[in-house]
Structure formats: C-alpha cells, structure tokens
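Sanity check record (used in CI):
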Amino acid sequence: MFVLKTLTAAILAAAFVLPATPAAAASPISLTSGFYVNPDSLPAAWARNNAGDARAARIQSSIGSKPIARWFGNDSAIGTTVANYTGAADGQDKLPVLVAYNIPDRDICAGHSGGGAGSVAAYKTWISSFAAGIGSKPAVVIIEPDALNGMDCMTQAQKDARLGMLLYATQMLQQKAPNTYAYLDAGNPGWTAASTIAYRLGQAGINNIRGFAVNVSNFYWTSESITYANSLNSYLSTAKPFVIDTSRNGKGHGDGWCNPPTRKLGVVAQTGGGAEMLLWIKTPGVSDGPCGTAPGTPAGQFNPDLAVRLIDGT
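Expected output for Glucanase:
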C-alpha cells in the first residue's frame, strides 16, 4: 500500500511539473573573445588596393587593422549579407559591430546622407531580414544613427511613421537576434535636449533592447558623452546601458560636425571605459559630406587624406 501511494504521488507530481523557464540570452561579449576586425573595411580595402601609396601602411596600421563597425544600407539580399558577415566573425570567435542604416527619408533634415528604404513596408521587410541574418550569433547593432534626432523638419505624420519603424526594429532584433546587444542611436551632447530624446527613445522601444548609443559620427569627449548619457538615463523609466563612439574624439569636439579640422582618432574598441563599450562606430576616414576639410568627397566615401588627418590630429 505504501509503495502504491508513493508511486501515485510521484505520477501526480510529475504531471504538475511546470515547463522550464527559457534560459536568458547570453551576453555577446561573454560569447566571444574580442571585437571582430573586418578585413574588407573601407580603410583596409583602400590600403590593400593602394599598397604603393606612402599613406597606405599608416592607414592600415592605425585604422584598417582596428575593429570598426560595418554600416548596412539598402540591399535586396540583406539577410544573406548580414548572415555572411556575422558568420565570418563567429568563425573567428569575435564580436562584430553592425549599424542598421536604412530608415526611409534618412538624413532628411541635413541632407548629406540621404537615402534609405523606399517605404515603411520595405523598411520592415529589410530590418526583419537584417535581424534574421544575425540569428543566434553574437553581435552588437547600432540602430539608425540620427533617426531620433533628425526629426525636427518632419511633419507629425512622418515622425509617427519613423517612430513606428524604429519600434518595429527593436522588436525584430529582440525576437530574431537573441544574442545581440542592440542600441538605439541617441545623438550627442550638442544636439537635442536629453529630455526630448529620452521621450523618443521610449516611443521607439528602448525597453525591447539593450540600450542606446551616443556620439555616433561625432567628436565629443568621452567624458562629455558619459555626462549626456547619464542625463538621458535620468529621464528614462529604467536606466539603460550605453555605448560611445570614440572613433574621432581624440581631441574632443571641434568646429562643426562635417569633416572639421584638427580632430583625432580616439581610443580603440573596448569594453568598459565609463560605458558598456567604447566603439569605433563611424569609420575613420569616411567623409561626413562634401564639406569641411573634404569639400569634394561625398558622404560615405573613404578619403585617405581625411584618414591621415585623424591619425596625425591635423
């Protein structure tokens, strides 16, 4: 009788065992052994293709050999492109940094880096495929630089559409790229008020992802960016981790934002440093637009003279 009661109790207990809680997504930092160096970054490719140029060795040593984010725009095969890139990094046990840069009406207010997907539907398809291309591989993603700050010239309907697309982007990365740390771009200390950007971060789904990025493609000192990020966090319902772009802040903020003179490379990619990570998000040597010290170089194009200026701080 005792055996029967014991057996019955065991059966009943087994019947009411709750399913195991899924394991939390792992940190992509802990899953890898350092940052991925893209052998085909614009500076590395230029140095390789111009080996006879006196500047090539210096550009490769100081920039091309360093971990730099890769920017992804309009691409009908974006899922495959991203899968191949993150797969190459994963094969080396390294952590890639990607920038999703395809929001419709991109850079609508400034104009130098215009472009992006042709419609809301096209963007949703693109970002869904982008996230699926990463899948379970470890990665860091910066979501749409300038998208939250560069809205002041837009109509309310355009703003609402953009916020909806960013929200969708955070949802796709949350659902389809579980081992990715994703960060919404939040501008820099000299742009929009922290209270305004914090509100927009909330609308764009900041709580779906890891956190936010500051100083992307800009020049502010790391200490200034930390102060700004802490101010943003004071307005958020829940404080979030942040990353800082240090690619060109070795001398702090200069005269303007578009290829200003006498700027310098900042510290290379690392964890910590006052933020969750310090990253080279902007590619050093890539023009901000046909202005400043590169009046003839369109936005997104590599210019070796710009690269050498950043190496020398001139």
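The CA atoms of residues 62 and 129 lie 34 Å apart. If this sentence no longer matches the regenerated tokens, the check is flagged for review.
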